[in-house]
Amino acid sequence: MHPVTRDVTERIIERSREARAAYLEQMEAARRNGPGRAKLSCANFAHAFAASPDDDKAAVRNPAAPNLAIVSAYNDMLSAHQPLERYPDILKAAARACGATAQFAGGVPAMCDGVTQGRPGMELSLFSRDVIAMATAVALSHDAFDGALMLGVCDKIVPGLTMGALSFGHLPVIFVPAGPMTSGASNAEKARVRGLYAEGKASREQLLDVEMASYHGPGTCTFYGTANSNQMIMEMMGLHLPGAAFVNPNTPLREALTAQAARRALEIGIGANAYAPMSAVVDEKSIVNAIAGLLATGGSTNHTLHLVAMARAAGVLVDWTDFDDLSRVTPLIARVYPNGTEDVNAFHAAGGMAFVVRQLLDAGLAHDDVLTVAGSGLRRYQQEPFLDGGRLVWREGPAVSLNADILRPADDPFDSEGGLRLLKGGLGRAVIKTSAVRPEHLVVEAPALIFHDQEQLLAAHRRGELNRDFVAVVRFQGPQANGMPELHSLTPVLGVLQDKGFRTALVTDGRMSGASGKVPAAIHVTPEAAAGGALALVRDGDIIRLDAHAGVLEIKVDPATLRARTPASPPPAQAGFGREMFGWMRRGAGPAETGASVLFEVTT
User: Fold this and answer.
1) What is the pLDDT of residues 264-293, one digit of tens each?
2) Which of 102, 100, 133, 148 is nearest to 277 (CA)?
3) CA atoms of 571 and 481, how far apart (whole Å)
4) What burial class does residue 406 get, using C-beta atoms within 10 Å of its C-beta: 0-12 exposed, 13-18 middle, 19+ buried?
5) Which entry of 221, 301, 483, 587 is 20 to 30 Å from 90 by CA?
6) Residue ranges, CATH 3.50.30.80, the chain
């Protein structure tokens, strides 16, 4: 192991000792309780299987015949989840062929940040993760299952499914992805038209044409945002079948992998020689592997929230210092849009996850000695699936990149460090995604301009007030203020100003997104303005220094002067679009660095 990876892992293990022991004790007690349906009374049992086909009813009466839960984020509005419509039938048929059964145990909500960007619904987005976790627990609470299959793909959905499923971590759990849509309009063309629209040089019809040519079919959006970072992380954590992440939907290989997920869940069930409960798969080492994958591929900044919350659900405590220390030794070996010009389909074709896993293991930056749903050892994930005469088999993935513009080996990377950095100083702690930012833009020192939402900034741009050097401070955007919406609408405007030669940066207690782009952005600032953070004390004209090289986020104001200021008041809470129902979550949300969750703060 690389000494820093080893040391960070040991630090996490020590920090997590009590919380992890308590979690594992809870899971062991659940395992000793035995299969759920064996404990059901006759009336409970009859209710659980009343609507099942007669053959399934006969099978479940056999105490040796396992029953799998299917929990799905299916809806037909969102491209990433539309392919999941047919998955339950595929999974049930595969289970029946093995003498077992599978039931659709419950659905979870799946909202799309791409639809709600800049809209009121975005204020529900982050908290939908915890709702999904709770809905997953409700689906599994019938305690009639010997394993579970999680069907979900996008931003908050996979983290929420993970958090909920971990509360039933004595069961084997396999995540079943849908895969990315086929490639449409190029990312470069999409970015070009977005920039023209931000300058008023392209019409809405022109923008709509290129957006619809890009997002054009079933499957995950093809840029490397949070959704596709989720899929990478599931592989690095050993919760997918090897190589399942980036196979396109509605293909024979995709359907074969889906059916195999049910068969494998039966093979690793309680009492099996290959028993692989989720509580053993998700541990300190698998979390470090996930962080390594995120850094090596320039993945989504959202996972400085989600991975922290997912880990806490398993009693594993990580913080941004862990991310930062690992980032300094993990080379950036992938460039996928928005960090490069090509999409995830090109990444997959160039070697994809099999290549990434091999490189990280060979460099000692990931742990091989982990349990996965495919068996012992992460090396299994340097293999890739294919069909041999209709039969699903695995072969060794590429040992050499098939496109050096997209994937490079760890000893000849795009950058010697990963794509994330911790920033700290007088304004608090924050993270920045550096992998898409040119080196000359990684240090910005300029006067602050204060905004309390992104529309204020966009309006200032329309009035021509932003043609200068400045640091945009967009505050009261944290979890306690308004649910921590993404501020992705700011990227085109700030990018245009940067292209004009102005020194500009963003500092916010809100989120950007997995699509964070070329403008330096200190995000997730903690403490947030609404919780007494220094952001509430900043005034227009204060000099802010963001230095990603040195890891600094500071305000050039005497600390005593800063403390003497009266904090700005947050804008009044907005109602409508369901926002009023989430007030308790805003009030109860933990800090961004602990995952911005309402679920695990007390126990950890």
Assistant:
1) 999 999 888 899 999 999 999 999 999 999
2) 148
3) 9
4) buried
5) 221
6) 420-571
C-alpha 441/C-alpha 549 separation (Å) is 10
Task: Name residues whose C-beta falls within 8 Å of residue 462's C-beta, 6 or more positions apart in sequence.
Answer: none
Q: Check residue 295 and give left, alpha or beta (phi > 0: left; psi -120 to 50: alpha).
A: alpha
Distance of alpha carbon 566 from alpha carbon 562, whole angstroms:
9
> Residue type for 200, please?
G
Q: Which position has the token pair 């929990």?
A: 71
Class of the 420-571 domain?
alpha beta
Q: How far is CA 58 from CA 52, 54, 140, in A?
A: 10, 6, 22
Q: How far apart are CA 285 and CA 291, in angstroms?
A: 10
Two structure tokens written together for 162: 């993970």
Q: CA-based diameter of the chain, in Å? A: 76
Give the integer Cα–Cα distance in Å for 126 and 258.
28
Handedness of CA 513, 516, 519, 521 (dihedral sign): positive
Question: Can you give the length of the chain in residues?
Answer: 604
Whole-structure pTM value: 0.94
Angle (CA) 9 10 16, round 5°? 90
Q: What is the pLDDT of residues 59-114, one digit of tens each?
A: 888 877 899 999 999 999 999 999 999 999 999 999 999 999 999 999 999 988 87
